[in-house]
Amino acid sequence: MRLRKIAIFLLACTVISSKAFTQRYNFITYTTEDGLPQSQIYGLLQAEDRQLWMSTLGGISRWDGKTFYNYTISEGLAANYTINFVFDHQQRAWAISNSSLNLIEGNKISTYPLPATVRGGRARLGVTGDNILWCQINGVLYSFRDNKFAQPDRLVYFIRQHGQAARVRPDMKVVFFQEWETPEERLMGTTEILRQLANLAEDRKAA
Fold this sequence. Notes:
By secondary structure, this protein is α+β, with helices and mostly antiparallel strands. The protein has three helices and 14 strands.
C-alpha cells in the first residue's frame, strides 16, 4: 500500500512538472522596422487613454497598439535625446533635454529654454496636485507655470552662502539651523536673516 501511494505521488509530480515545462508565453518584439525611432528604450509611461509613450535615443514615440507615432527634432523637439518625461493632469507630455523643456500637446510641440544647462543627466520632472510642473536641474528645483520658469537665482545664491545653516524643505520652505548663545543674539540674528530675505523680495519686485 505504501509503495502504491509513493507511485501515485511520483506520477502526480511528473504530470505537474510536465505541464510546467510545456507552458509557453507569447512575446512580440517591436523594432525600428515596426516604426520605433530607435531601438534603445529607457523610459516608458502609459497615458490615461492607455496609449504607451516611450523615450529613446532617437526621440519620443507614442504607440496606440497598432502604430508608432514619433516625435523627433524633425517634428520640433529641441533634441532627440530626452532625460525624463511626465504627463500633467491634462495628459500633456513634458520632456526635458539638456537645454530645453519640451511640451507635446496633440501634434504640436513647444520648447522652452531651461534656466540652467543640465550636467551629467541630473534632471527630473514632476507634477503636483495643482498641476504645476517642477523641474529639478543639477540639484536645484524650479517651478514652471504660465510658460515660464521661476528664476530664484538670488535666493539660490543666498542659500548657498549660508552653507549647512540653510536648507530647502520638500514643501519649498527655507529652514535655517543656527545656534545663538543668548536670546539677544538670537533676536539680532533672526532679524538680520529676515532683512536679507526682504531685500531679495524687493529686488525681485524691482526686476
